[in-house]
């Protein structure tokens, strides 16, 4: 009984939060989601020489092709972010960023690093949610057109986005037996399962956002490390990738779980 009352109160708090933030939450979600692409695109500009030399030395492709690679990354990421934030040609921008993720996965050998691969897939999950949101906006123009039902592309995109987003949290699990690690693993795993299956989705996603925010600012505080130290770039990379996944989770909060979810089944 007490558990049910607490859950009901928590859901009321989440609903109140959504009512207050509904007009600007999608904008914040988009900005957070593209933050890692913005940061990486800007880094490509300031580390143009280093990046092209790395690609050339790794793949022996010559400086010309290495420079083309850096240019594609820079334009693809910054251009895609501008289009998404301005809500112009969002679908094309998402496909472009999917291409950047695929290109970097091969070029930087991310395919063979499970942690980085899972994070790249989580970023892809966020982009799937952006695609779902853009389909919703496009459909609102044709309000009288019949829906395709629960298995519509939009709902499938939301399902795929939710499932891929939880991969980010899997990379944050700790294998030691300290009290914090056990608590972190148990609470986090419960939340990501709820988000993945679409049960109490908005409350679980909002709680996971708060959880990831605390972890991100505590463990990935790159601004506290001198810029010349290698760990600075690693922390910065982790910080913005986690921020992008937070943006994806905020989109889940704003859009809801979609038709393919336990919440939707319960309504029926």
From TrEMBL:
It is found in: Endoplasmic reticulum membrane. The keyword Protein transport applies. Pfam families: SURF4. It is a multi-pass membrane protein. Belongs to the SURF4 family. GO terms for cellular component: endoplasmic reticulum membrane; endoplasmic reticulum-Golgi intermediate compartment. One of its GO terms (biological process) is protein transport. It comes from the Eukaryota. The chain crosses the membrane at residues 64-85, 92-110, 179-199, 206-227, 239-260. Keywords: Endoplasmic reticulum, Membrane, Protein transport, Transmembrane, Transmembrane helix, Transport. This is Surfeit locus protein 4. The keyword Endoplasmic reticulum applies.
């Amino acid at each position: 009984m007490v558990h049910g009352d607490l859950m009901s109160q928590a859901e009321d708090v989440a609903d109140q939060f959504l009512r207050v933030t509904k007009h600007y939450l999608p904008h914040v979600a988009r900005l957070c989601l593209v933050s890692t692409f913005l940061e990486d695109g800007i880094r490509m500009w300031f580390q143009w020489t280093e990046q092209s030399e790395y690609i050339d030395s790794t793949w022996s492709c010559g400086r010309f092709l290495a420079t083309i690679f850096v240019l594609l990354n820079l334009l693809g990421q910054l251009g895609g972010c501008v289009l998404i934030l301005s809500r112009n040609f969002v679908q094309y921008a998402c496909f472009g960023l999917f291409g950047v993720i695929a290109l970097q996965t091969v070029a930087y050998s991310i395919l063979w690093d499970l942690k980085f691969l899972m994070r790249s897939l989580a970023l892809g999950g966020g982009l799937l949610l952006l695609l779902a949101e853009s389909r919703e906006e496009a459909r609102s123009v044709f309000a009288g057109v019949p829906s395709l039902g629960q298995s519509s592309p939009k709902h499938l995109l939301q399902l795929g986005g939710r499932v891929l987003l939880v991969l980010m949290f899997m990379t944050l699990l700790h294998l030691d037996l300290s009290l914090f690690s056990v608590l972190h693993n148990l609470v986090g795993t419960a939340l990501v399962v709820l988000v993945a299956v679409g049960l109490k989705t908005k409350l679980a996603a909002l709680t996971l956002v708060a959880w990831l925010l605390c972890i991100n600012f505590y463990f990935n505080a790159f601004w506290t490390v001198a810029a010349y130290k290698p760990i600075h770039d690693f922390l910065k990379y982790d910080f913005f990738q986690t921020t992008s996944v937070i943006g994806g989770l905020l989109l889940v909060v704003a859009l809801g779980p979609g038709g393919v979810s336990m919440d939707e089944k319960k309504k029926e």
